[in-house]
Amino acid sequence: MNKINYIFQKNNYLSTKQKHLRQSGPAQKHKSTLSKTFALAISVLVLGGILYKNKINKKIITPNDKYANIPETFLNVEHINFKEGATIEEAMKFGYEKLGIIEYKGFDAKDIDVINWVNEGIVNVYNKSKGKAVIPYIIQYEAFAQKEESIVLANINSYGSTMKINKNFVEELKEHVANRIMLIKERLPNKKYQEMIDDFEKGKNNLKYHFDFAKDVSTSRFETIYHEMGHYQHYINAGAQMYNDLANPGKIKDEAEYSKIIKLIELFHKTDTAAKVSEYASTSPLEFVAEVYAKLCEGIELSDKILDLYKKLGGVLI
Fold this sequence. Notes:
Elements: H1 3-23, H2 33-57, H3 88-99, E1 103-105, H4 112-128, E2 138-142, E3 154-157, E4 162-166, H5 167-171, H6 173-184, H7 190-203, H8 207-217, H9 223-238, H10 240-247, H11 255-270, H12 285-297, H13 304-312
Parallel strand pairs: 1-2, 2-4
Antiparallel strand pairs: 3-4
């Protein structure tokens, strides 16, 4: 799926969303199937013309205050200045107008830190890619169903263009940080260890304090956002077929495609290249690509061998 097709698909999604919102009000008169089909065809043609015209003129279309049809991100803008929202309304408005996010689901006023964190992480990715990164339609905040996934902070549904943030993880930050502190206690001087505990206690379950702590110990507070965005860019760049085939080679029906994918998977397992990125990167080709993308977002230099495998698996350089 290239970026032009992505824009077209996103705007089709938007049209459907707005239609649903309108129909949730007073009852609409029923139209015949033929007239609906004709109306849809006309809408697609008109939308395509508007898209093309406004991409050239670099104008932003805003059909209403909440949903932006063609956000800044599709108008060859290479850099977006992040602005932290003082309220959840301000944070969402930034996402709608600057990032082209269509909807934030499941957030309350108290979750302002979570939205600001997601927005800033996405802005970082977008700026690092110089405007080439594709941004998910929807940011959803929910408790992950599986109990074992309480340690997973986020995931992304590439097909549905939805990034999900695990409410369980965020609400249990204190426990997670306490566990991490125990793991690193022996590697830090006692004074430093106590200072970190004091800082965390001041912030209680504040997300910013949690990630400040994590950054002090390991890596960027946005590592998870970079990783999940890496999955999405992989899906867009490699295409749905290759992405899904790498995930489930046993479901491939075409012999030539199966042979090509198996060779890539064998190449992935043949060396210790993935393990040099991270332990998690060595678990599968998809995780390897996402981990490499996260490292690139952090500005970490990687070997030519790693980048060569990354490109062969469909990873996009930034």
